[in-house]
Structures are given as structure tokens and as C-alpha cells.
Design brief:
Layout lengths: L15 E5 L5 H13 L7 H22 L4 E6 L3 E8 L20 H8 L2 E6 L5 E8 L1
Helix pairs in contact: 1-2, 2-3
GO molecular function, one term: ATP binding
Keywords: ATP-binding, Kinase, Nucleotide-binding, Serine/threonine-protein kinase, Transferase
Protein name: ATP-binding protein
Length: 138
């Protein structure tokens, strides 16, 4: 996995092929991710599908929890990778926090995103929030 602070540009717009309605909760993101991978031929490996569902779920959970909403969710694929992009209204960048072992304050999501993805980029979104793009092996 590359260092997300020095990762190259996000996936090209051609790789992102399916935008879905912004989800209000993680379960909606998982359902959208599952529907997306069902359309792929050849299908990704079962472990890649599980990882994509978890990655989409964590990105959406973080956006809802820390930015108040998801403004866009999109998926893409090519022969070697799966892509997910989540936009939210906050310009604040994700940051690592010490995980709260009681579960009250979280701190597990962003490290999990960085572990699951081969590449993660965060960029401004037209001065109104940010887009997080994650690339993972297919």
C-alpha cells in the first residue's frame, strides 16, 4: 500500500463509472457497493468484494459522523483495481485518532480505510467539502 500522503493522482474519471444516490447510512453504501460488483464481468474475488463493502461502509460512516452527510458516492473498476469515491460537505481532512476502546468516540474507521486501500487521496471539492478516493486491488 502506498503512503496516502504521497499517493499519486486519484483514479481517472474514466475509471469511475457508476454514481449512486448519496447514502444516508453505511448499510445503504454497502448495498450500493454490492449492486455495483454484481454488474462486473469478470467478478472481483470474494475477498475483494468483502473489502469493497467494508471500505465503502467506513468512508460513508466517517462522512456522516464527521461531516454530517455524504454528498456523492461513486464506484469504478478496471482490470486490476476497484475504486470508490465519497464526497462530503466538510473541508476538514481525515486524521488518525487514538481509538476509543469503549466504542464511544470511535477512532477505528480511518486506520481501517488506510489498511484496506492500496491508495487513498483526499482533495478539495469545488471549495465545498472534499472527495476521498480509494483504490483497492480487484
Amino acid at each position: 500500500m502506498s503512503d496516502p500522503r504521497t499517493a499519486p493522482d486519484p483514479p481517472s474519471p474514466e475509471a469511475i463509472t457508476e454514481a449512486v444516490p448519496p447514502p444516508a447510512k453505511a448499510a445503504d453504501a454497502r448495498a450500493a457497493a454490492a449492486a455495483f460488483v454484481e454488474s462486473l464481468d469478470p467478478p472481483p474475488s470474494p475477498s475483494a468484494v468483502q473489502d469493497l463493502l467494508l471500505l465503502a461502509s467506513e468512508l460513508v460512516t466517517n462522512a456522516v459522523r464527521h461531516a454530517g452527510a455524504v454528498t456523492a458516492l461513486a464506484f469504478g473498476a478496471d482490470e486490476k483495481a476497484l475504486y470508490v469515491q465519497v464526497a462530503d460537505p466538510s473541508p476538514d481532512r481525515p486524521r488518525r485518532r487514538v481509538p476509543d476502546m469503549t466504542g464511544a468516540a470511535g477512532g477505528f474507521g480511518w486506520p481501517l480505510v488506510l489498511k484496506l486501500a492500496r491508495k487513498v487521496t483526499v482533495r478539495n471539492h469545488m471549495g465545498q467539502g472534499k472527495i476521498i478516493s480509494a483504490t483497492m486491488a480487484r
